[in-house]
Design goal:
Shape: elongated
Structural class: alpha+beta
Radius of gyration: 19 Å
Order of helices and strands: HHHEE
Number of helices: 3
Number of strands: 2
Length: 110
């Protein structure tokens, strides 16, 4: 839709359909982000972060290097110093509710 048509009034039905589509799209992106970040935490729980890992993981998760860099920064903030410790996240989601707990499996569990 061209930008000059954005201010055009639409019916309630059309507006609700657009909102529903945006919510569905954003929920799909949030689920993908959560899945990727939990996978990243699991990878980091098995070994230290080394040179070239982010590039490899970006290819593995099929995202850009910028996205994986943000995810690694989030993992460092979330997990602190649990790298290569065997402490892994167990995540449960139900709709919009997200819960996580940490389990110790020992180094080299996977």
């Amino acid at each position: 839709m061209p930008s000059f048509e954005w201010s055009k009034q639409v019916s309630n039905r059309e507006a609700f359909r657009r909102v529903g589509g945006r919510k569905r799209h954003n929920a799909k992106r949030r689920r993908a982000q959560l899945k990727r970040r939990v996978g990243l935490l699991r990878l980091l729980s098995m070994r230290e972060l080394e040179r070239g890992d982010q590039k490899e993981w970006a290819a593995r998760f099929n995202v850009s290097k910028a996205t994986i860099s943000k995810d690694v920064a989030w993992a460092i903030k979330t997990c602190g110093g649990c790298y290569a410790s065997g402490i892994m996240p167990r995540v449960r989601t139900s709709g919009r509710i997200f819960s996580a707990c940490w389990e110790y499996h020992g180094p080299g569990y996977y």
